[in-house]
């Protein structure tokens, strides 16, 4: 399956809103408190585009066979580039393909020294993170919610950013 990375603003608003209102998706997104609507969408797109403007990287929309399947990428969080992947449940199996492409961009193209991944404590299955090379790296509180932080270091010594 070929997966394209596009800017989030290129995706139909209703598709993004539908994804971010799915109970299966929201259950691991503790910062999602209420129904995600039009105003939330506008703020979401603005915030994600601002990451690109301020840091030179950011999240994308993932498209497979011309269908929006989710969003994610690198987001600036507390001095780190944090990895996020949010997919429609029917596409959860494509996460590894997307992950590999994001890692290639993070380490080879951008030259980051490391990336993080933040998981809510409700995500109890973390063996997959360890298999990918992530190591536990403490906890972080965001908007009153606790997250477990994992870090993956760039295997290359040619880092541009710390």
Continuous helix count? 5
Number of strands: 7
Rg to the nearest angstrom?
A: 15 Å
The structure class reads alpha+beta
Task: Extract low-pLDDT stretches.
Answer: 158-162
Instruction: Name the CATH superfamily assignment of one domain.
Output: Gcn5-related N-acetyltransferase (GNAT)
CATH architecture of one domain: 3-Layer(aba) Sandwich
Choose one word for the global shape: globular
Record the SSE blueprint.
Elements lengths: L2 E4 L6 H9 L1 H4 L11 H18 L3 E6 L2 E11 L2 E8 L7 H16 L3 E6 L7 H5 L3 E8 L2 E9 L9
Give structural notes:
- This protein has 162 residues and is α+β, with helices and mostly antiparallel strands.
- The chain has a domain at 3-111: Gcn5-related N-acetyltransferase (GNAT) (Aminopeptidase, 3-Layer(aba) Sandwich).
- It has helices at 13-21, 23-26, 38-55, 95-110, 127-131; strands spanning 3-6, 59-64, 67-77, 80-87, 114-119, 135-142, 145-153.
- It has a seven-stranded mixed sheet with strand order 1-2-3-4-5-7-6, with helices on both faces.
- The longest helix is centred in the first third of the chain and has 18 residues, at 38-55.
- It starts with a strand and ends in a 9-residue tail after the last strand.
């Amino acid at each position: 399956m070929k997966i394209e990375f596009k800017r989030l603003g290129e995706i139909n608003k209703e598709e993004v809103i539908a994804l971010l209102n799915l109970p299966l998706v929201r259950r691991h997104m503790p910062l999602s408190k209420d129904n995600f609507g039009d105003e939330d969408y506008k703020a979401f797109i603005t915030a994600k585009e601002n990451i690109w403007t301020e840091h030179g990287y950011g999240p994308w929309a993932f498209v497979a066979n011309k269908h929006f399947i989710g969003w994610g990428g690198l987001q600036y969080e507390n001095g780190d580039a944090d990895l996020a992947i949010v997919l429609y449940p029917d596409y959860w199996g494509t996460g590894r393909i997307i992950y590999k492409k994001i890692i290639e961009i993070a380490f080879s193209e951008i030259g980051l020294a490391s990336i993080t991944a933040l998981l809510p404590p409700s995500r109890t299955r973390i063996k997959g993170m360890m298999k990918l090379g992530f190591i536990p790296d403490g906890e972080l509180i965001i908007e009153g919610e606790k997250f477990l932080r994992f870090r993956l270091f760039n295997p290359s010594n040619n880092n541009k950013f710390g």
